[in-house]
Amino acid sequence: MNIRDIYKGKRVFLTGHTGFKGSWLLTWLHDMGAEVKGYALAPQAGNELYHDIGGDELCTSVIADIRDADRLAREMKAFAPDFVFHLAAQPLVRLSYAIPVETFAVNAIGTAHVLEAMRQLGHPCTGVMITTDKVYENPETGVPFREDDKLGGHDPYSASKAAAEIVIASYRSSYFQSGRIAEHGISISSARAGNVIGGGDMAGDRIVPDIIRALINDRKISIRNPLATRPWEHVMEPLQGYLLLGALQHAQPGQYDTCYNFGPYPDHTKSVEVLAKGLLDRWGDDTNRIEFDRSPQPKEASLLNLDITKAGAELGWTPRLDFAETVNFTADWYRDRHLNGMDARALILRDIQKFESIA
Ligand SMILES: NC(=O)c1ccc[n+]([C@@H]2O[C@H](COP(=O)([O-])OP(=O)(O)OC[C@H]3O[C@@H](n4cnc5c(N)ncnc54)[C@H](O)[C@@H]3O)[C@@H](O)[C@H]2O)c1
User: Fold this and answer.
1) How many Å apart are CA 124 and CA 111, to the nearest integer?
2) How far is the CA of 105 from the centre of ligand 1 (A)?
3) What is the position in ligand 1's atom list of the atom closest to the CA of 86?
4) Total structural domains within the chain
5) What is the model's pTM?
6) From edge to edge, which strands make up the β-sheet containing 259-262?
7) Using a 6 Å CB cutoff, which residues line ligand 1?
8) N or C: which end of the chain has fewer CB within 10 A?
9) What CATH number does the domain containing 258 carry?
């Protein structure tokens, strides 16, 4: 299947289009010839990849809150989308400890609002709901999670995304049953990905943006939880998974209405320390600027792996970049943007073109 053919000329409603993954997905969809309407809050000061890529030129952008159910339903219905990709979320674990109720409202109830808006559409539509690898109850054994493992979540972010999964499953079994797709026309899946990295993310309190800010400003880097491992993957990997999943749902309605993990191969799960050193090496920085912050931190799961067998077997999806390539793509993007002044959208398109050629 040629994914580009599926999305060409289609109408795609993208929540969270002003964020990191949203900006990459918007650029990709626009490049494939899709017509995109975005729905999200304005980019946060200092984290403006969306403005950097000239996002307003690539979509009809609605700046509004996912908690405003009426506005969301109105904007979606007026657009009559063929696809909905739901990425809008409060995505930070540590922030979720400070604003737990807001995190639940945006992530769990916000997802219900998206599904409810789809229920009111009145025409066929394919939805891919983005949750996270943190939706699983994590006893920290290191055993990779499979899609039918128990949901859970210690911190409010993880719990809010697990709650979103339950909301999605409830809408599917109550309104959007696969066996009755001919009646309701709505196909819903959920996608669980790991910690994504890639050019342009400048969110506060994330390891790669923290390192890049330190490099640009010639400062020391303080790294907490250096031995914690994560399933690092380049942002293009899960995005390609979401696009493939949506395309298959669209082509064979009712066949893929379930959940999928989109993580890297297990041996690409590396510690924060290894990632940090890899980025500094590729950047060409030899100033020994890493400091390890060993002070007590709010709990974040330190062992987390995804089993990606199901996405491979059912969708034919596998990761394309190994860990070193993932780091190199990421470091090169930031270096070419911040040291060499290259255009942000052109850099994303350059990476997408290289990535697609690896297939
Ligand atoms: N970045 C990662 O490592 C990672 C890993 C797993 C899952 N995810 C998930 O992927 C999705 C995108 O994450 P990201 O890294 O691009 O995050 P981001 O913070 O860069 O973007 C979040 C987006 O959601 C929007 N948003 C936040 N609150 C909103 C609200 N109340 N109403 C409307 N829009 C709102 C923001 O405006 C932004 O467009 C999220 O659902 C996140 O949970 C991210």
Assistant:
1) 19
2) 14
3) 41
4) 1
5) 0.96
6) 60-63, 35-40, 11-15, 83-86, 125-130, 186-193, 259-262
7) 16, 18-22, 40-41, 65-67, 87-91, 106, 130, 132, 193, 195-196, 203
8) C
9) 3.40.50.720
